[in-house]
Amino acid sequence: MKTPMLLQMPPLSNFYRPTVAPMLTAFKVLALALVCFLTLTGCSTTDIHGETAGWSAERIYQTARGAMSDGNYLRAIRLFENLEARYPYGRYAQQAILESAYANYRLGETQAAIAQCDRFIRMHPNHPSTDYAYYLKGLVYFREDQGLLGYLYELDLSERDPRSMRESFDAFKELAEKFPDSRYAEDSKTRMLYLSNAMGMYEVHAARYYYNRGAHLAAVNRAQAALTNFPQTSSNEEALWLMINSYEKMGLTDLANDTRRILEASFPDSEWLTGGPRKAWWKFW
Prior knowledge:
mainly alpha, 13 helices
């Protein structure tokens, strides 16, 4: 069955750009635009049941797909809900769950999207599109709380709460294990590697926080957590460097030397051995 294309972001020019207009005028324009949006949205979604009276399941489904193509995800969701209510046992109703999950994802309704994915997986564990449900669930968690700036500039996931990263990792892992031949398996594995390093870097950020505040034992513990839970990722490099310096600050010279030998063996060209990498110019904060 056809599934919606993912990660199609509009160009930057499509986003709102402020103009040099008086503040009062800007507020009036914004208020008028909001009223028009609510009016149009209400007209397109509030009377779905009356609009679709006598429609076949296929017609409701295709109309909802058309609404998604036009970017009217709220109308699409209402149509998919109407389809499920009127034709709950057909193949279109099954597909409507996935399509509704995708529409909620694009609308930013992450919890609704995840709930729809879980419902599809629970109801149809052997469906040909179940792998897609896992994949979409992983994507929803992958992007959760990233916001507009995250979409535009791909903000570092390692600086966010790790709970959504773990949920995303688990969804991709389950897909890769249960559906190794899935068209989404390879991308899922790639995202798992990225998430493993991001979660390791989250521990490193915490270790650096403690180190900068003189809590050297706590820094060692968080750095060790990165090494133990996320081995063979690039986060291990800075974790080892933080451990070396923390041991030195605590006067544990032998442990510092042992850790330095591990860093030299694991990352022989490490910039951390010569003072650490230079901060990227754009990270001015």
